[in-house]
Predict the 3D structure of the following.
Amino acid sequence: MATAEQVAKEAERRDVRTRWLLSAPALIIIFLAATGPLLIVLVYSLLTPGAYGDVKWQFSPEAWLSVFMERDIFDDTLSLAAAHVTIFWRSIKLAIVTTIATLALGFPTAYFMATRSEKTRDIWLFLITIPFWTNLLIRTFAVLQIIRNEGIINTILIKLGIVSAPVQILFTDTAILIGMAYVYLPLMVLPIYASMEKLDFRLVEAGYDLYASRFQVLRRIIFPLVRPGVIAGSILVFIPAIGAYVTPSVLGGGKNMMLSNLIELQFGQGRNWPLGSALSITVMIIVMVALLAYVRNAGRAEVRHG
Amino acid sequence: MNWKITATAIGLALLASTGAAFADGELNIYNWGNYTSPDVIKKFEQKYNVKVTITDYDSNDTALAKVRQGGTGFDIAVPSQTYVPIWIKEGLLLETDPGKMENFKNVAPEWANPDFDPGRKYTVPWAWGTIGVVVNTDAYKGPANTWGIVFNTPDELKGKVNVVPEMGDVMFAATKYVGGQQCTDDKAVLKKVRDLLVAAKPNWIAMEYNTIEKMGAGDFKATSDWNGSALRQRLANPAIHYNYPKEGFGLWSDNVAVLKEAKNVENAKLFQNFIMDPENAAGLSAFHRYANAITGSDKYMPADMKDAPEVVIPEADKAHAELQVMCPPEVQELYTKIWTELQK
């Protein structure tokens, strides 16, 4: 005869088993769908490129070497892969500048929205989400129509006699930044707004009552309280911005490669899939390190502010 | 009211599916986007009672990679001449022997036995063309039959030139401009090519494919381009001229091949034969705006193409034409490195 304790233990074991079995399909799918493709990319990065695309099943560290080092094709010397570093840095710089620009535009926007009456807030929120209704490519081409030489801005400037010849905006770094800021702005506004909405504005009033200046209120009260929203928004903007492909190509004119172009080249005309895979993993690592550093830093700052 | 619409939609869908079922078969074509004349396809469907489905691709590399994975369900693909030997070598194509087909007699002699498919064992010509220089003569009136427009840009065009970022084509043009042979592995020549490209780039405004619209709007005043694209630009703006560079310009051709994994082989063969008919070939040209390599098709060509300088290469320029080939992997690797350095 089993004791009551044994029965209970047995039941618990069965319960655990059932739970594992029930969640197994989900776990398997998560593993296969999330990790599987990445493993393939990792394996491919360690193989030899096929003559005309694809890979040969032959181990080679060459791809990883050429991510960081390059052999000069003319004098055969080995040096740091300057071209890759330049391209990586260009993409990272663009992602950082885009994050700062969207923050500068998005923070006041979110503040404005959060301080409206409850009814009108919904309208503003609705307006912010409208750009998501159309495809990214279409939004980018809309920006192109505005800033091109025969576009709206230049036509107005010329009609008003402010300039005599069109100002070249399209195909410049400014054009890329305008496009990126426009495309990613909602991703910054929405999380900040979500934090800002929960903000207890009585604290702001209390701050003024205690003779805080406007800037002090912003810096010491509002900003610390909406920090989670700012962090979330920055992450949401930074990650896609670092891999941005469409916007820099369409507005920048494609003269200077972005990270994504460099990777695409390896899978397309360059026919070096292992190098493409190695570059992709490098990007992931960079993003991960940047995020960890950012989140840890931001977390520490929060403790300091108490 | 809503259920009525739904019912009608279902009815129509049923009708459409039974319509397909009445056809004797299907044909799945994998081709470049915006390249296949719907009129010619309709004619083929009616003649042979076959339902044709067209799927687009945007580059030779995409098409090759996808077909190589297998299980695509496509019967026909249209690779460029540079890629045809790879498709053959990788065993992706079915030897349908178009050289023995009824309509093969119409194929122009210069395209009947090309190096990329000796004896036309696999492929049928779909279109061919050239890669040259397009200039808006309102912006630049000087001689433009030279790659110098792109690589040694005259002052009037500085900051207004576009380059279509097709690596193989740009390397071909630059190699010709410095006096080398295509696909050369001569480091001295390649070094000149690299230096030329790097020095030329500051004068370019962009490197993109979307030339028709940008030349039309005036964002570009000159560009390297395909001849069919140039034709469309001139029809929109008569000041835009196409030029054949005297240093040597590339010839290309796209070719219809049947895949080894094709399920509708007979229909695919019928299609290969069908498009070698002069009237049908002209129909294809009327849509994609390139020449078609079928003798006798000029009778049926649209009026604006018959004597178009973009389609009919002038006698004086013919000597400078050269069919582009696929460079060996080692050269391709050097090209990629130069290309990365150019665009860094």
Observations:
- The CA atoms of residues 32 and 71 of chain B lie 19 Å apart.
- The beta strands of chain B are 25-32, 50-57, 76-77, 123-136, 161-162, 204-206, 222-226, 240-243, 249-258, 321-323.
